[in-house]
Amino acid sequence: MADMEEVPGKAASRLGMRHLQAALLFVGLAANTILQLNVGVAVVAMTNDTSSTTTTTTTTSSEDGDTPHYNWTEVEKSYILSSYYWGSALAQFPAGYLCKRFGSKAVLFWGTLGSSLLSALTPHGVYAAGWKAFCGIRLLQGLCQVTWPCIHQHLANWCPTKERTRLGAFAYTGFDCGNVLAMFGTGMIAGSSLGWPGISYSAAGLGLVWCLLWLLLGANKATEARCISEAEKAYIVGDLQREERKDPPKKMEIPWKGIFTSVPVLALLCARCADTWGLATMQAELPTYLSGVLHLDMRSNALYSALPFLLMWFMCYVYLIIADVLLRKNWLSLTALRKTYTSVALWAPAAILLSLAFVGEGQKTLVLVLVTLSVGVSSAATIGSELNTMDLSPNHAGILAGILTSFTNLVALLTPLIVGVLVTDSTQRSQWQVVFILVAGGLFAGNVIFLIWGTAETQPWNESKAARRKLKAEEKLFQHTKLEFASENSDGNGVALKLNCKNP
């Protein structure tokens, strides 16, 4: 054991294949996030040159060239924005199973490749069949969304216990990087000579380049990597073997009843759905709001749409450092930390959105500041609620993540549809006020539920039935045991300690 502990120290002192895998996951998550979220800017770019407000899908030509633009209705645009999540909601459970069956490398490769190729086909599909083709392509891209289950599985196979938080947090911030690029980069492309088709082509190119790198450098496990040192391999494999339980999670029966009747799980689900509602509203609708109400052109829209997510990316690292200090100093328990961070992630944006609803149209700078703060502070949800699945059930964290992701995808699906019903004219601030107030109410209610019933304690159904029976038997053994003090002799000198046991 001593020898094994010396190897980790050597391996941990320098960069290795495990850091390369985390970097690949970071870039892959950023690429998939761009493929997912660039539609918000694309729809604005595809429709902002039209002056017609009819429900037809006739096209006009832009001032800069022959790229067609469309006069889609707000309802049609809401279908486009939500169609991705129709497929994504269906993909989560199969993705988790496929990762276990074929490995995360193959599943993530084919998923990203499919989504990239579909992105390259998007302009041609829209030219041929309009918004309905756009919806169909986005639905298929959603079915290719296997990123989250694959990343969870890959990190579990590569990250030693001591480095799991550090490497995992770095990989997950690829989502925030992708958010920034999806808003700023795509907006700049839309405002260039490439026009809105360039958004799809550039996203496809990034995804295809990443697929090539992943194919050459990715590996399911340390034992399958070609360029890993023996010291690093021993460090990773030895650490994971020491953490392995006698009753491996993959052989355990999944406690479906325990999961779906667990109050902490249901409280977590409410918090995750509330957070998703708020974030999805900003991700999908922010470009439309900035263009319709504040009348920002595409280049300004790109910059101001990206600022909130740039702050969100930065705050992820700030929150991580603060959480590490709070736990290391024992200033907060894990449950208190989760609830504190969730409160910041949900209640702060709720208060900001309520303020945003009543800010005058002429106060453009204040609106931009409030929007930026609303999105930026919400990154506390990563530590507050997203990681809570591992607290409740380490053995079934993947299953819990799949269940939660399926429900949050449904929320993300409904978000643009709700906005499409409430906002019939994107230039009317009063209609956006209703949207912001509803979202703020959902954020407030979701956190109240989590504060009352949420916890970071591991749930009883986490263990297998055999382990639970063994634990109950051990508890029964001492159920009828009493510890008594008695005099050792008749004159009262001396004290004897007696352990009286009765056969239950």
In short:
By secondary structure, the chain is mainly alpha-helical. 72% of the residues lie in helices and 4% in strands.
How would you describe this structure to a colleague?
Helix 4 (74-102) packs antiparallel against helix 18. The chain has helices at 2-12, 17-37, 39-47, 74-102, 104-143, 147-158, 164-172, 174-190, 197-217, 230-243, 256-260, 263-292, 298-328, 334-357, 364-376, 381-386, 388-392, 397-422, 429-453, 465-477; strands at residues 59-61, 68-70, 481-487, 495-501. It has 504 residues and is mainly alpha-helical. A hairpin with a 7-residue loop joins strand 3 and strand 4. Mean pLDDT is 78; it is low at 1-13, 50-64 and 243-250. The strands form two sheets. It has a two-stranded antiparallel ribbon with strand order 1-2. The chain has a two-stranded antiparallel sheet with strand order 3-4. The chain is built from 20 helices and four strands.
Task: Name its key features.
two-stranded antiparallel sheet, about 500 residues, 20 helices, disordered N terminus, mainly alpha, 4 strands
Strand order of the largest sheet: 1-2
In terms of structural class, how would the helical and strand content be classed? mainly alpha
Mean pLDDT: 78
Residue runs with pLDDT of under 50 for 5 or more positions: 1-13, 50-64, 243-250
Could you describe the largest sheet, including whether it forms a barrel? 2 strands, antiparallel
Number of helices: 20
Q: C-alpha Rg, in Å?
A: 26 Å
Provide the β-strand percentage band.
Answer: under 5%
Q: H/E series, N to C?
A: HHHEEHHHHHHHHHHHHHHHHHEE
User: Percent range for helical residues?
Assistant: over 70%
Q: How many strand elements? A: 4
Shape: globular
- Terminal-residue CA separation: 42 Å
